[in-house]
Amino acid sequence: MSALNVCNHRFVYKIAPTDPASPFYQRHDEMRQWSLSLPQILQWSDDSYSNHSSLGQGKDFIAMHFLIRSASCVAHQAYLPQLDGSSILVETVDAAGWSLLHRDSGLVDVCVTNALATAEMATKLMKSGAKTRSDLQSVWVAASLFVVSNTLLWIQYSNDAHYGTATLIQEAERGFDTVLQIMSLWEGNWTAASQWLNTLRAMRAMYRAAYLGDVDQSLLAEAAVPSWSPESSKFRPRPGDGFLSLHAASTLSESLRFLASDTSVEPKRLQTVWTQFATGWPHDFVNGDLYGTLQS
């Protein structure tokens, strides 16, 4: 599912994601069937986590279930209809002929349900003690939290007819705040966590700007690449490498994808370009020296 998202599947595959012949449908169904086939001891529960934790496998157990949940968001979130002003004015269709404003209740339900479930798991684990909070710290949990954060923000600001209730908005707000709290705890061990926090706050600020017209000027004044970072990354998108052009980022969804691929974005561009890890697997995560990247 992550590979589909990385290749911007919505604008590549001409078969609708609801068609059983589509790669999207098939991969999600395979993933769903696999997760349903897990034996009872591997399914998510307090007892299962306690058993794995007592065997020294608590961190792996948590990471597995965060990945399972976020895997149902990472590609599905491309089908969350962004009804901000700029997107409504752009009559764009994807490769399958679907309008970007089209709302498929099945795809949205899968995405939102799993994002909220991930946030609930994170909140419960955060309240369960120091050992459990320590087990939360892994790159897989970090990637999963970034994936679901985009959906949590969508619930808060999109005014969706089904998910825009006060109860669900509050639940999404609490979930996003928990993500920020978790990342804050990691700052002491992972220097990269500071940039992740900045990105999450930028995502929230851009949702507010797009839907409420509330632009956070203090955020726009911050450097996109922190001074402590050794150029952050030498990667820069170039014509022909498959990454979206800055000037082509005319809608909210396109802007989210752009910021995910280019950490050199100028602060002033944050009004039109916004998200980082929301695309699922940022380029730094495929480094050979993954943990070195996190520490430096």
UniProtKB/TrEMBL annotation:
Main location: nucleus
Entry keywords, A to Z: Metal-binding, Nucleus, Transcription, Transcription regulation
A molecular function (GO) term: DNA-binding transcription factor activity, RNA polymerase II-specific
Record InterPro entries: TF_fung
UniProt-annotated location(s): Nucleus
GO CC, alphabetical: nucleus
Protein name: C6 transcription factor
Source organism phylogeny: Eukaryota, Fungi, Dikarya, Ascomycota, Pezizomycotina
